[in-house]
Queue: 2 jobs
Job 1
Amino acid sequence: MRNYEIMFIVNPQVPEEEIDKINSQLEGIITSGGGKIEKIEKMGKRRLAYDVGKHREGFYVLFVMAANGDIIKECERRLRVMDAVIKYITVRTDEETRRFDKIKNYRQKRAARRGTGRKPAPVEPVEEAMQ
Amino acid sequence: MRSAKEKRPAGQKQYYRRKKVCKFCVERIDSINYKDVKLLSQFVPERAKIMPRSISGVCSQHQRQLNDAIKKARNIALLPFATE
């Protein structure tokens, strides 16, 4: 299982219910294939940075999930077929997050080491005693 | 004025140049995400070209991540490929 993000743009003229329908369809594909959805976020209407077809605006939707290649393949096929979907992008995120965790761990360890080495704690009680 | 100019040996810089620092290293921004348009747009000037390292001062590791993020953002129409 790997972590992926799928972001896609839906035609803004399409009613909200239609977007929900697309979402539930994708949800069905992912869960039935053994994947796990972490987040579905409707990011709302946004101006596109450039025209896509005839569209200047789009409704952004973000899926965050754990899945495998087959599920992603199926999702992308579906998105390509749907008329309401203007554009989509899939990004693999697990490698990135692993790297961030590593950096974070390293930083924490370093901070802990520095904290014990310097012992900044005894400074304050002395000041209090003087007052 | 002129005398001051003449005193300066040839080839010396005439003004003090501030040392550039990598924004991502200084502010400890680990994740350069393609969704963070506000952050990315700081590195794409008007023509929507990616700002070179020599101008922005970003370190090579972060510049590489930044490049990837900007290209992803362009793909999903969050950032423009080119303007005009």
Note: Chain B has a mean pLDDT of 81.
Job 2
Amino acid sequence: MATYKGIQGYSVPKLTTDPTGSDVVGQLWYNSTEGAFKISVTGTGSWASGGALNTARSQMGGCGTQAATIAMYGSPSTAAAETYDGSAWSNITSANSQRYDGGSFGQLQTAAGYCGGYGVGPPPLQSTLTEIWNGSTWTESGDLVTGRQGFHGGAGTTLAGLVSAAGPADGKTETFNGSTWTEVAALVTTRQYASVCGLTSTAAICVGGYGIPAASPYSNGPGSRVGLTETWDGTSWTQSANTLALGRIEAGISGTSTDAVIAGGSTGDPAPPTTPTATAETWDGTSWTSVASMSDVQKAGGASSSGGSTTAILFGGGPAGSVSASEEWTSPVFTVKTVTVS
Amino acid sequence: MANTYCTATNWGKDFFTHDDRNNFYLSGHPGNVWVVGNNPAGVSWINRVSGVAKVKAEAQAIVDAEITTAQEAFDALSAEDQSHHLRPEAIILP
């Protein structure tokens, strides 16, 4: 009778517990505890449920990684903040001002910033405020040059941040040096509620968004969703030849200018009506690729900032009002399978 | 029948896993309504999350009621507040 060792030249390892799937892709072993042969396989990326926010909200900010994220501010207008440890959200000290639709920047759960957005009304006004979270306290920092709202994300760190794609309709980008904001170049195509991400203030992307009608500086009136992607090199924005497969606004985005995942948001062209989506796409620096959809449609949710196209968490938002649910993106997914033997 | 329907409350982490997503179709909707691929893995998931089975019409009615409530809340906002949000639209379950 042929043996595995005779065919392969080595024995099947005998282990009492399964190793980490990602460490042993394609390898076979015998789990002596379960009395079963096992193999690790690589699967496509997918979304799994994450912990539920303590405060359901939308139009918020988010920074950090899938396993260490901060959610801050949001609508209904709140100053509440929460941190995620990979399984559950915990309330932390609230910020000093209630706002939503502001820009968030920072790559860490313990170094996050939030600027602009709508303040408390009536009527809610475009804010210039910036607050920085250092892991223990919120501190007000330099104001935006111009009061702006309709952000979705941001790039860089709390010492070198960037926000863009918000009203008013000047399309201006602002960069932050840790204490002061400076207005820099405008987007090629002016829009708001576009998704922005990037590791630094000199390398970012701006995706999708809502074409702002020229006659209306910051309305949510008729306009078109655009699937455009622009890249920022620290000086100017350049429009990519490749667009999203599905143009969207207020979509969650996480990653860098060359490696990112975007999911959810609202689609429809022209708008309204709006159609929330659960679809997702990944960016490799050149083009977008459709990947597995989330389970829930989600518009105007928050997202982690770091993790590239391989890991992310999107939270809150919702197709009707605001929800507390979150979903975690992992790609690829490594799965340990039991081998059936006769 | 390609899908089955239930209501279940999402408790958060591991309510559905990557394996679940790879083993059956799953989509969540307002009112804790879930559309689940009608295969053994999907049925097993409904049992695991203590889902309450619904026929499609019942599930759609729950979603419709949630959307209507959200639309009424949106319509009650001032014009200024409405300009900062998107009006919820009807959802047709697959």
Note: The domain at 47-330 of chain A is CATH 2.120.10.80 (Neuraminidase).
